[in-house]
UniProtKB/TrEMBL annotation:
Residues 8-56 have a biased composition (Low complexity). The keyword Nucleotidyltransferase does not apply. InterPro entries: Pra-immunoreactive (IPR051791), RDD (IPR010432). Pfam families: RDD. Residues 1-56 are annotated as: Disordered. It is a multi-pass membrane protein. One of its GO terms (cellular component) is plasma membrane. This is Uncharacterized membrane protein YckC, RDD family. The keyword Metal-binding does not apply. The chain crosses the membrane at residues 85-104, 116-135, 165-185. It is found in: Cell membrane. Residues 79-200 form the RDD domain. PANTHER family: PROLINE-RICH ANTIGEN HOMOLOG (PTHR36115:SF6), PROLINE-RICH ANTIGEN HOMOLOG-RELATED (PTHR36115).
Amino acid sequence: MTHPPQQPEQSPYGQQPGGYPQQPGYPQQPGFPQQQGYPQQQGYPQQQGYGYGYPQQPGGQQYGYPGVPGQAVVPQGFAGWGSRFVARLIDFLLFGLVPIILTFSGIDSEGRIGPLYFLGALLGLGGSLFLAWMVGTTGQSPGRKAVSIQVLKESTGQPLGFGMAFVRGLLEFINALPCFLGYLWPAWDAKKQHFTDKIVGSIVVRKI
């Protein structure tokens, strides 16, 4: 007794065995790499200081005029003429008075120069170099420290450095021309600057 040929078993979805296999998704198109999704975007690094501004200056102090490149904000204000005068007077008494006395004492009535003259000149030079070093590295001399003021470079808000502070000292004679006008200029100048300050780009501010 023969049995009728068995019909192929049909797929639950109507697909015949031996036909095209069911695709597990869309086939990869030739020439297009398979996409794995967009990578997660990395956030922008947080700025130091203000959220969308510029980094805060070292030491927590800011120097410069807002919106004006190359100049410094001075929130504590410029030093007045009176405090600058007192600071110079103190420095003169500490470093200038003795050398001047010695140099004048070293010249006799006939104009001959003695040892005291050279000693006074040597002490004066040493005092000038010491003051230039203090102002260049810290912005202060003993007199300026006593009245809490500081000499800074206007473009950076930092001390001048020894070289520029020494040049600033050499140019002091300009403040005496004419009739000591440069020493009086900070009394009405907007930035309270001497002539030498304007030449070397320095400002004198109140130290917090």
